Amino acid sequence: MLAACGHLATGRPDERPDGARHHPIAPAALRVNALSLRALTRRYGERTALADVTLELAEGLTLAVLGPNGAGKSTLLRVLATLLRPHGGEVEVFGNRLPAGGAEVRGRLGLLAHEPMLYRELSARENLRLQAALHGIGAERIEALLASVSLERRGDEPLRTLSRGLIQRAAVCRVLLHDPDLLLLDEPYANLDPAARRVLEPLIGRESGKTRVVVSHDPASAKEDSDLVLGLARGRPAFLIAAGELDDTALSQLYG
Amino acid sequence: MNPPHSTEVVRALVVAQLRLELRTFESLPAMCLFAVTTFVLFHFGLNVDRVSSDLASGVLWVTLLLAALLGINRIYVADAEQGGFDAFLLSPAQRPTLFVAKTMVLLAYMAVVEVVALPAFAILLLEPSLWNALPGLLGALALGNLGVAIIGALVGALAVRTQARDLLGPLVSLPLLVPVLIGVAGWTAPLLHYPQALAVAGRWPLVLALYDGIFGLIAFALFDFLLED
Fold this sequence. Notes:
Number of strands of chain A: 10
Shape of chain A: globular
Number of domains of chain A: 1
Strand content of chain B: under 5%
Largest sheet of chain B: none
Helix content of chain B: over 70%
CATH architecture of chain A: 3-Layer(aba) Sandwich
Radius of gyration of chain B: 18 Å
Strand content of chain A: 25-35%
Structural class of chain B: mainly alpha
Number of helices of chain B: 9
Strand order of the largest sheet of chain A: 6-7-8-3-9-10
Number of domains of chain B: 1
CATH topology of chain A: Rossmann fold
Order of helices and strands of chain A: EEEHEEHEHHHEHEHEEH
Shape of chain B: elongated
Number of strands of chain B: 0
Number of helices of chain A: 8
Distance between the termini of chain A: 24 Å
Helix content of chain A: 25-40%
Oligomer: heterodimer
CATH class of chain A: Alpha Beta
CATH superfamily of chain A: P-loop containing nucleotide triphosphate hydrolases
């Protein structure tokens, strides 16, 4: 088992454009595990989607998950998000064992999946007001978040009329609305132009200061943007290494 | 972080669902059109201006029930297709709040359908006015609608997560709704008697209230498990 000790990062509390808290990352010795997986297994019927995934990730660090299509990356995110039950092994998120501790975890995580999880016929504001009610928070953060992704002017238009990039911005607002401690990001920058990426990076990138699990198909950005890299091949861990150790040998285990 | 207040969650879910319906009109027009068209077909098929109270009661409730199925089949479709289910499950909201919200939305749908369909029913199949029967009928509508909405919100959640939701919804909900149909038709028949309404047997309101209460509690308890992976 490889434990995440990762890189040290320091920072001061600062003002973020979305008005969210920005926690400085504590020294490694003070950190507690955000994630702890031991021999996690998940099946779909007879097919094993994940097997023997074991890792620990300390709070404030970023885990990149690499692997070819169908390797189990999205399944891993959905298990961590409490949407899928683990079929074997143990999963703890912020010390809460899943699935029993799911209720304690849900308010502390945000999942950005391929689907925006927003109603197409409702506007971004209407969707976010609904999400605010579901999370038991006031609607005050909505305007700040929409402004932070430059969506405030088009926030009243139905989502079906917006481009994919703008919908992704609205989805990021949904993910950040309740100021989660853990971000689960499934190819967060897919289909985004460089300008949109620049807008979203301060919110969901490394500088957000949050614990992150990022599924990616881009080894270069995974190496640059994470502390640990998990390689999945056919649902099994091929490697779990510090991001700095990611090289062609490791990648050849995934992509041949 | 404090858990969200369930009343606020239900209110927000109901508002969102009604907004979706008002923008897409996916359910209500189909439900209303189905009910009115069925009464027209019965009018010409039976070739009478006025049917007996027993027959009228049966025609009314079977039609309303089948119209309700159209709404039940679609009540969770936007949630399933656009990720609303996942967004809800990712929140710390109590799971049964979704059931309560969908029950309230189905009740609203039924009320709208009845406002449109009852005048058509009266004109096409009851020669005299429906006004005399209306006070008693409102009670039957309230408890009958509640039974339909409870079963619909429960079965809809089960069906929408399957490939064959259009088949599974009616297949599971219709047998469960037979007691509602018996109770509400038995309650309504004497109210539609011509020339003068007859007294309603007290057992029918009691049966319906009991059914609604028991199935409401069962659905409330089961709903959490229905949403589980």
